[in-house]
Amino acid sequence: MANEVLINISKDEIEQARITSELKYKLDTQSALANAEEDGMEKGMERGKQEIINLLKSGKSPEEIIMEYEAEHR
Fold first, then answer.
1. 74: how many CB neighbours lie within 10 A of its CB?
2. Which of 1, 9, 25, 36 shows the smallest number of beta carbons within 10 Å?
3. Concatenated DSSP letters of the chain
4. Which sequence spans correspond to the domains of the chain?
5. Are the CB atoms for 65 and 55 separated by under 8 Å?
6. How far apart are CA 1 and CA 11, in angstroms?
């Protein structure tokens, strides 16, 4: 009887450890995805800023820039 109780306790501890491990994996995965998304947004913003700086340095008028942009994105 005491052995059965110990076996059941051990099984419960193993199950609890499995569930805890699963939850940790899910949380770690969600955190990694959120960080990757944030990094991607930051890199995209930096790239966009650099493109704007390059356009401003080109000496073109805003109208010329808009016309070129529209021609490229049709």
1. 5
2. 1
3. -HHHHHHHHHHHHHHHHHHHHHHHHHHHHHHHHHHHHHHHHHHHHHHHHHHHHHHHHTT--HHHHHHHHHHHT-
4. 2-72
5. yes
6. 15
